[in-house]
Amino acid sequence: xxxxxxxxxxxxxxxxxxxxxxxxxxxxxxxxxxxxxxxxxxxxxxxxxxxxxxxxxxxxxxxxxxxxxxxxxxxxxxxxxxxxxxxxxxxxxxxxxxxxxxxxxxxxxxxxxxxxxxxxxxxxxxxxxxxxxxxxxxxxxxxxxxxxxxxxxxxxxxxxxxxxxxxxxxxxxxxxxxxxxxxxxxxxxxxxxxxxxxxxxxxxxxxxxxxxxxxxxxxxxxxxxxxxxxxxxxxxxxxxxxxxxxxxxxxxxxxxxxxxxxxxxxxxxxxxxxxxxxxxxxxxxxxxxxxxxxxxxxxxxxxxxxxxxxxxxxxxxxxxxxxxxxxxxxxxxxxxxxxxxxxxxxxxxxxxxxxxxxxxxxxxxxxxxxxxxxxxxxxxxxxxxxxxxxxxxxxxxxxxxxxxxxxxxxxxxxxxxxxxxxxxxxxxxxxxx
Length: 433
Fold this sequence. Notes:
By secondary structure, the protein is mostly helical. 56% of the residues lie in helices and 4% in strands.
């Protein structure tokens, strides 16, 4: 976090954010043992596709391959980054292996050196000209040289940097900070030996199969060209010129808001939520959007409707039914309840509704349920008078599309619909409530 643990304020974390606020985000810090595989699987698939474009179709696509692989190396650095924060996987062995052999070592980053540089130095001393290694590197590159014109700055640090101008400086920095640096203790020496042994095996296997040229073209060339350019531009967008212009730690970095294409190339694994990460590094990348999006919605002051749906989406996009989804829902609801905005919570889950009412996590809210779904439940809650209630009715010309949508979300709904049609009792009407 943006806080020196040796000089931590008594009642708040960094940037004046209270402990209570961080406590409301605790449910987002839960780790698992499968998101790492999804992240790396996507990265490897993109690399395979990029190689296929050149080898399988035509080398005319090599510039595209170079760019795709370069941006994906940034994504591999993000995997190492989460492993260094010990939030990539709940299992310690999986967390370490996926952050070393499966990502970090492939881009010549030592896990221990990266952890020291990024967590103990960059996070704790963010914006310090000597103790923050990233800011110090930018200063040595002349990024904050005040006498250069805007045109000169843009040409040198954006246009020329994108075409290799900063490559030698960046590589020297990585070697010094991530491979050779941070002392000569036994653990670091052993990891360095492990890294070079790992690459010796890779080169030997490539030589055995006669693909050393391909290893050079599709791995080492992107690593020292496009990956460097992408890393430079991203770090520029995340911090520049904030350390020189701001003193509040909340203002020393920023999130990067881009369209879907930009986020695909430069924000994979939610790397673009950089401010959120600095404020709460314990949130893994698959939970990164939720607090940021909710904060933006609450800031508008409009009414918020929190819906617990049954979405047929991959686990990387939406949580499936279960305890983790309920905990996420309750945590968001508690955060909304603490804000000043009006809100409603919508769910047909009787156990979840009971937990909400018992814990009074939504004391100011309004319960919404769909017409015809458990009318007896919402009527009982209405009669108790504990919270306001509202029934949402589906009507109009597109009712059939809505029906298909609900069935696609949760196929068992078709049996509920058939039972309702066959029932001698009519569907619930307004008088039932």
